[in-house]
Amino acid sequence: MAVGVILLGLLYLFAPSLGLDPTSYEYFTSDGISSGLSADQPYFTLNGKNITIYSGAMHYFRVPRAYWKDRLQKLRAAGLNTVETYIAWNLHEPENGVFDFGEGGSEMEDFLHLEELLTTAKEEDLFVILRSGPYICAEYNFGGFPSWLLREERMGFRTTEETYMKYVTRYFNTLLPILAKYQFTKGGPIIAFQVENEYGNQEYQTFLPQKEYLEELHQLFVQNSIVELLVTSDSPLSHQDKGTLPGVFLQTANLGASPEKQFEKLLELQPNRPLMVMEFWIGWFDFWGNDHATRDANTMKGIYERILTYPASVNIYMFHGGTNFGFTNGASLGNTLFDNSGFEPITTSYDYDSPLTESGDYTDKYFNIRELLIQHSPVKTYTPDVPNLNPKIAYPVISIEKEILLSNLIQYDAPYVIESENVVAMEKLDINGNSGQSYGYIVYRKENVDLAANTVLKIGGHICDTAVVSVNGVRVSPSLETKNDLDGFGFWRLADSTLVLTTDEKKGATVDILVENWGRINGGKITQYNQTFKGLWQGDVYLNDNRVSGWKIIPLEFKKSWTNNLEAWSSKTSSLGPALYYASLEISDEPSDTYIDMRSWTKGLVVVNGIPLGKYAKIGPQQALYLPAPFLKKGYNSIIVFEHYKSADQLSFTTGQIWKTA
Ligand SMILES: *[C@@H]1O[C@H](CO)[C@@H](O)[C@H](O)[C@H]1NC(C)=O
Ligand SMILES: *[C@@H]1O[C@H](CO)[C@@H](O)[C@H](O)[C@H]1NC(C)=O
Fold first, then answer.
1. Catalytic site residues?
2. Is the pLDDT of residue 3 over 70?
3. 16: CA distance to ligand 1 center in Å?
4. What range(s) does the Beta-galactosidase 1-like first all-beta domain occupy (predicted)?
5. Which-ligand-closest: CA of 275?
6. What CATH number should be reported for the domain holding residue 482?
7. How far is CA 526 from its chain centroid?
8. Total tally of structural domains belonging to the chain
9. 70: containing domain
10. In 248, 307, 367, 566, which residue has its Cα 20 to 30 A from 103's Cα atom?
11. Which of 50, 51, 377, 380, when mutated, tests ligand 1's pocket best, judged by the most ligand atoms within 8 Å of its CB?
């Protein structure tokens, strides 16, 4: 370490003779630090020197921790001087009052070492912009809100409502002191914080963005010794300054096209202040059932150049999208208010058609950006060489060895069985320190029921979000083969949906309704947020119009400790889900990145060495799951597939994402 520092120092001393430009930190801080990022004039200054912020977005919670350094090196080598990330409240406070900033014991703990991220960014010569919410959108589960907030009687998300602000205050009073140490003027990398996110978008008939709410957030930053620049972001053309506090926060713009129009509006709203695009959309996210969204690299290059030459500072959204590992994807609700009928889940891949692919490979956009920045950057700092890529391997095909049918899973491996008179939402279960169930599946089981021939099951309201129904352990509800099946029974679109359970009489039967949470909404109208429960909760369940009561409820959260210790395995005899299927991947050398090709499977979840990798669905567009090397080990690796409908006999691997076109 010390040797490295001395060597770096020597390199810098001799830099002119070696023809090396200074690093960003050398350029901006070699004479000591007296001031942070200033927006008090028509251009930004950092420590008194002019700066144009060339930033790229990368969300630490979408990239394995072992790869943060690699991705940040690639970001710096593109000529960027800043990395931007959101902070996900739902990960850092997974249970009410229980925080995790790495090693906190939560399921996602390895992603949560925020301080390591900040230290690594500085080591890689990058400044940092933090968008700390509390609401972040980000196409992330519940826009970053913890689902246990839904347990409160009254919850006025993104308003001054007391219960909401009580929890925001406790979270910020925990988070911000950690971040305060890493501010630029304290010798750290953080040059700016964004307050809230696209709050101006909340302007609609029944709701006006509350300035008082923004002021309360502002006070929390001040009280926690945050001294760096505070900004907000949305479209100034669409929402003027409704989502900001003029004079308190610097307003920035989010856009995918027409930068000049947005800049003119910004200058009108904030004369004599610098311009910044906080989100320059160079790609887009995907919904299950749609085509993969892409944006042309040359079009992007043209607009990026117009932003650079205006001139304005700009954050590329996303520079590296990454993956919605496990259960972390968000969803959209369309225009429907509360009933879930317009639900649209975001895919596991958050590739975003970014300059760096989901697995960190370069695309044309990467080289376009690098070329433009080398050409336009007014300050010449040292741009490292483009790093080598990590190898990708398509491991040999492996066979499914073992299975656990859902009925056996419930009988032998149920983590809890909760008796309940009525069906309830997963968030309302008194588990996880009374924080409820946030993620995964919930089984509603009715035992010992006499079913007459042609008994009709009716589920009141909408299913949140998918349901697979079995009678005596045999699935009787339809599969998800094409996206048109989403209009039928077992999915969220139908209200009061019905299914014939049996054509002949069955006495003393067991009916299982397996309900999947396919991701909570990440945006939309805030009046929708406090209604986004998962499971069956919108109405009662009926058999031939008789209300059913006396349920057993079994949450399936796929926590590591549970998945790694399942006991009911037996050799594979069927391919009819719902069932868990086990295969073992033997790796003799150091593991490499790979993708699991799920095209011959139907719909479900893959878990590797206890880590929920993500959801798959053959309706696409995504057909493969990125499996990063850090999730694998030398020797035997356990791969478990939870298939809802129909399994394959094998798992095969590939070296890149496969996009299906509709
Ligand atoms: C900083 O930028 C402004 C606007 O382009 C320019 O007028 C000023 O001279 C620059 N200052 C320095 C020290 O380069
Ligand atoms: C849900 O949020 C809306 C809008 O903030 C509010 O009017 C309503 O009272 C909230 N409902 C509950 C149960 O908190």
1. 198, 279
2. no
3. 24
4. 436-557
5. 1
6. 2.60.120.260
7. 19
8. 3
9. 26-376
10. 566
11. 50
| 341 touches ligand 2 (CB under 6 Å) | no
Which of 522, 556, 590 corresponds to the end of one domain?
556
Q: Which two tokens stand for residue 606?
A: 């893959």
- pLDDT at 625 > cutoff 80: yes
Q: Would you state the pLDDT for residue 385?
A: 96
Domain boundary (556, 588, 620) is at 556
Residues 494 and 577 placed together within one structural domain of the fold: no
Residues 262 and 354 in one domain: yes
Asked if residue 173 has pLDDT above 90, the reply is yes
Task: Determine, yes or no, domain membership for 1.
Answer: no
pLDDT digits (tens, 9 = 90+) for 561-615: 999 999 999 999 888 989 999 999 999 999 999 999 999 999 999 999 999 999 9
Tokens of 17: 């003779």
| For residue 620, pLDDT beyond 90 | yes
Asked if residue 408 is part of any domain, the answer here is no
Can you tell me the mean pLDDT for 192-203?
Answer: 96
Cβ 310 under 6 angstroms from ligand 1:
no
Interatomic CA distance for residues 232 and 241, integer angstroms: 10
Assessment of whether the complete model's pTM goes beyond 0.90: yes
Return the ligand 1 atom nearest residue 42 CA.
4
pLDDT tens track for 26-37: 999 999 999 999
- Pocket of ligand 1 contains residue 43 by CB under 6 Å: yes
Is any atom of ligand 2 closer than 6 Å to the C-beta of 156?
A: yes
Given a cut of 50, whether residue 18 has pLDDT beyond it is yes
End-to-end CA distance of the chain: 53
| Residue 508 and residue 494 share a domain | yes
d(CA 521, CA 141): 6
Q: Is the CB of 50 under 6 A from ligand 1?
A: yes
Predicted confidence at residue 573, as pLDDT, reads 87
Q: What is the pLDDT, as a whole number, of residue 662?
A: 64
Question: For residue 19, what pLDDT is reported?
Answer: 64
Q: 507: which residues sit within 8 A by CB, 6+ positions away? A: 450, 451
- Is the alpha carbon torsion for 239, 243, 245, 248 positive or negative? negative
Counting residues of the chain whose pLDDT is more than 90, the rounded percentage is 93
CA 67 to ligand 2 centroid distance, Å: 41
Nearest protein Cα to ligand 1, atom 10: 50
- Any atom of ligand 1 within 6 Å of the Cβ of 272: no
- Is residue 658 within 8 A of residue 633, CB to CB? The reply is no
> 464 and 594: one domain?
no
Q: How far is the CA of 51 from the centre of ligand 1 (A)?
A: 9
Q: Which of 77, 86, 85 is nearest to 24 (CA)?
A: 77
Give 352's pLDDT tier (boundaries 50, 70, 90): very high
Query: Can you give the pLDDT at residue 138?
Result: 98
**Cβ of 542 less than 6 Å from ligand 1:** no
- 514: pLDDT strictly greater than 70: yes
Shared-domain flag, residues 273 and 231 = yes
User: Is residue 33 located within the same domain as residue 150?
Assistant: yes
Verify that 549 and 597 share a domain, yes or no.
no
Do 519 and 571 sit in the same domain of this protein?
no
Closest approach atom of ligand 2 to CA 158: 5
Tell me the longest C-alpha to C-alpha distance in the chain.
Answer: 90
Q: How many angstroms separate the Cα of 214 from the Cα of each of 169, 180, 239, 247, 557?
A: 13, 20, 15, 13, 35
Q: Which residue has the higher pLDDT, 19 or 407?
A: 407
Which residue puts its alpha carbon closest to atom 13 of ligand 2? 154
| Distance in Å, CA 517 to ligand 2 centroid | 22
Cβ of 36 closer than 6 Å to ligand 2, yes or no, is: no
